[in-house]
Amino acid sequence: MNTKFHVASDLLFSCCFQLLVHDSPPPSASAFSATSMAIHKTLRTKPKPNRSPIFFFILSLLAIAFLCIFSSSISIKGSLFRSEKIQAETHESRHSVGHEKYLYWGYKIDCPGKHCDSCEGLGHQESSLRCALEEAMFLQRTLVMPSRMCINPIHNKKGILHHSSNVTSEEMWAANSCAIDSLYDLDLMSNTVPVILDNSKMWYRVLSTSMKLGTRGVAHVAGVSRVSLKDNSRYSNRLLINRTASPLSWFMECKDRNNRSAIMLPYSFLPSMAAKKLRDAAQKNLIKVRLGDYDAMHVRRGDKIKIRKDRFGVDRTLHPHLDRDTRPEFILHRIEKWVPPGRTLFIASNERTPEFFSPLSVRYKLAYSSNYSKILDPLVENNYQLFMIERLILMGAKTLIKTFKEDETDLSLTDDPKKNTKAWQRPVYTSDGEGS
Fold first, then answer.
1. pTM of this prediction exceeds 0.85
2. Rounded distance, CA 82 to CA 99, Å?
3. Residues 6+ apart with CB under 8 A from 128
4. For all residues of the chain together, what is the average pLDDT?
5. 378 vs 158, 182, 277, 382, CA distance in Å?
């Protein structure tokens, strides 16, 4: 309720209370009958001389209060459609560029669907979130984002995950997730795609209004193209579109991303939208300053090097050259044409073997995020935040080498394709292409 409604309600309650205090005990039935008869007398009838002046004062206040409540209730329904109401939300600056219609995909990324309970890694969830953002951008709607993002246990070592059997699913979700605005700067993001969170007052206001509007308030859709959502008035005129995305993953709704003309947001969009405290840690709090002029390398090993045996007991993997190509001796040979000797080389990797990359120090000055633990430890609550800082450092390097080639101009450690081909092959460990 708005302030006007509360003030009027309080005034009405106060007036009623005063009336009960100043008047005598509740009137009898005969008194009500006499009052009813008096109403039908002509205006020439003189008022009773013994009527207290305070009675008319209280009656006037009651009339004013009633008018305030009545006018307030009329305005509530249309208030959501005015941009000044949007600006009155918790994050006012975010809504100054917002749209007056909304798009909702779900309370968790990739929900409902097969990944709803399992929780994928940050890159997977960002692909899904970017897809939802692109659709909101295309439809010129404000995206209602999940307020939390799940953290996959294999991508976290900060000790925030709990596994007690005495907690509810909601408590487990809270423990195994983080606030999404601790990862991303939503005000900065809203400069490109307006967003609100699903725990905000604005979202509850949208829900309330959509229910009052009935069938004109919300459209529940599944399997409908974004072009239809924009062009068909059956959907475009609704205050809220509630999309049920692909059960495989949200990003399947953007499966034409190989068509470059269809891409509205680049892969670098969400990494560049890191929360301000994370951006400050990477850019302003001396990490980049201390690195100076540097090159960088992102090495994915742990989550990508998966080995399984076939029915004959032979090792098989989806990326047959990855383990070989990301070992120090092969990295030295691969990057020598891109990174001159003596350069500072920042390494971001999920390899957990201590000193794994130390052999590279024969040619380069090595740097890791762990070198700056005094800056990062008080700031970083989980590995997602740590990786987002590392990505910002990677993006600031003079020469950046990725694990997989994602674009034709990328420099990469391996020529294996990043996409999971489902073709399990024998791993290769030698330079001549033979297995071990």
1. no
2. 10
3. 109, 110, 245, 249, 250, 251
4. 79
5. 12, 14, 11, 11
